[in-house]
Every structure is written in C-alpha cells, then in structure tokens.
Amino acid sequence: MEEATRPAQETGQTAGEEARRRPRPLTAAQLAGILPHRYPFVLVDRITDHEPGQWAEGIKCVSVNEPWCQGHFPGQPIMPGVLLIEALAQIGAAALLSMPENRGKIALFGGIRSARFRAQVTPGDVVALRCELTELRGRVGRGQAEARVNGKTAVRAELLFAIAEESAEESAENNA
C-alpha cells in the first residue's frame, strides 16, 4: 500500500502529522551523491519521496534511446526484467544509503525472492518504483519492492541486501 494512502494508525502518525508531512524528493544530482551508479547503469531518474532507512519512491522514464532497446527486442523493445529488478534495488539502496550512518557506503544484492513479472515495460513508459525496507539487522536486510506503469503492477519482488563495510571510493583506492 502506498504511504500516502495508508491510514494514520498504520503509519504511526496522527492524522494531523500525516497531513503536514511534506514529500522529501531527491533530484538526479542529489541521488548521484548517495548512489555509486553512473551512466549507463543509473536506472532511477529521481526520487519522488523517501523516508531514510524506511522506504523510497521514484521514477524511471523509459526512452527508446536506452542501450537495451536495440537488442531486446529489435522492432519491439521490452525493458529486461533484470533491469527492472535493478531499478528497484537502486530505489531500496537510496532509502538505505540516505541514512547518515550509511552515507558513502554501497549496498550489494544479497538475493531476490518471489519476483513476479506481470506487465511489459516499453519505451515511453514512466515506471513508478517503490521499495520499503522491512528488515534491517546489522549490515543485512530485506525490502518489499514494486514497479508500476499506469497504475498496474509490472513487477513485485522481495530484495535481500548487504551494506559493504567500505565505501565505493575506499574500495577503488584499495584495489588500485
């Protein structure tokens, strides 16, 4: 259920607090300061709202100029499911890495459970992405993720993740 449509008692907020809550969007530039991904593997255009350490929502505007369009499939491009899952993982990573104690770190895939693909995503679609972190124990956790197009579920999955001890910059320096 989307955060904006949850009753106040489910979110732990009073009705007045819920009405006053303002969205916390992140621009592409702000997102680049949180996630280590760079072109051509940035699969989130912006974060429309988030609560650090709890959940994030964002969008991916699918263009015919995406690198995968030429080969998946010629004449009828369909966004590969693995890229939809990666976009959801990037949304979850934004929720996780926006926490002050996780700034500068990277989130790694630990696994994918119960992935179900229900609709095709094609150029021209705007994919609404959401990941809610449901469990966090130390450096590992899980999240429930969903991608929707025009209000219809395209994919839903449970994502497992781990936070790397060192940041992406430290890793690059240590491997140089």
Instruction: Please identify the structural class as seen in this structure.
Output: alpha+beta
The whole-angstrom Rg is 17 Å
How can the largest sheet be summarized?
A: 6 strands, antiparallel
Number of strands: 6
Percent strand: 35-45%
Strand order, biggest sheet?
1-2-4-5-6-3
What are the secondary-structure elements, in order, as H or E?
HHHEEHEEEEH
Helix and strand topology:
Elements (H helix, E strand, L loop, with lengths): L7 H4 L3 H6 L7 H5 L13 E6 L3 E7 L19 H17 L7 E13 L8 E12 L2 E10 L2 E16 H8 L1
Antiparallel strand pairs: 1-2, 2-4, 3-6, 4-5, 5-6
Task: Describe this structure as you would to a colleague.
It contains five helices and six strands. The protein is α+β, with helices and mostly antiparallel strands and 176 residues long. A six-stranded antiparallel beta sheet has the order 1-2-4-5-6-3. A hairpin with a 3-residue loop joins strand 1 (46-51) and strand 2 (55-61).
What's this entry about, in short?
The protein has 176 residues and is α+β, with helices and mostly antiparallel strands. The protein has helices at residues 8-11, 15-20, 28-32, 81-97, 168-175; strands at residues 46-51, 55-61, 105-117, 126-137, 140-149, 152-167. The chain has 5 helices and 6 strands; from the N terminus they run αααββαββββα.
Features:
six-stranded antiparallel beta sheet; disordered N terminus; alpha+beta; 176 residues; 5 helices
